[in-house]
Amino acid sequence: MSMSMLELARHLEMLDESPEKIMFGKLLTELSGMSEERVQRAARQVPISSLRELVHQFNKVIHERRGERVQELAQEMANDGISAEELREYLAQRNG
Predict the structure, then answer these.
(1) What is the number of alpha carbons within 13 Å of residue 94 lying toward its C-beta?
(2) Quick one: angle between helices 5-14 and 48-79, nearest 10?
(3) At a CB cut-off of 8 Å and minimum separation 6, what does 14 contact?
(4) Model confidence over 38-49: pLDDT tens digits?
(5) Do residues 5 and 46 touch, judged by C-beta distance below 8 A?
(6) Which of 28, 45, 63, 82 could bond 77 through an S-S bridge, CB–CB 3.0 to 4.6 Å?
(7) pLDDT value at position 16?
(8) CB proximity list for 77: less than 8 A, separation 6 or greater
(9) What is the mean pLDDT of residues 14-30?
(10) Cα atoms found within 13 Å of the Cα of residue 71, Cβ hemisphere only
C-alpha cells in the first residue's frame, strides 16, 4: 500500500519522538535551508490540496510557537523585574 506524503506526515505526527519523527523534523529543517527556487520546484510536484493542508498545519504551529515565545519573554522580563506596564510605557514612548 502506497502512502501519500501527507498521510505519512500525519502518521509520523502521531508517533512521539520516534526515529521517523526525528528524521521528518530534520527533513523540514533541511527544506527550510534550501533556496526559494528549489522549494518552489519541489512544491509544484505536490497537489494544491496537500499544499494547503501543509500551510494550514504550519500556520497552527507558528501560532502555538509564537505564544510559547511570548510566555518565555514575559517570564524573562518578570525575572528581570520589568512589568508589563513598564513595557507598554516604553513601547508607547518609542513609537509615539
Answers:
(1) 6
(2) 30
(3) none
(4) 999 999 999 999
(5) yes
(6) 82
(7) 61
(8) 83, 84, 87
(9) 77
(10) 6
- Contacts of residue 3, Cβ cutoff 8 Å, sequence gap at least 6: 11
87 CB-near residues (< 8 Å, 6+ apart): 77
∠ CA 24-25-26, nearest 5°, is 90
CA distance 83 to 56: 34
**What string of DSSP letters covers 11-39?**
HHHHSSS-HHHHHHHHHHHHHHTS-HHHH
Among residues 7, 10, 5, 11, the alpha carbon closest in space to that of 31 is found at 5
Q: What is the pTM of this model?
A: 0.60
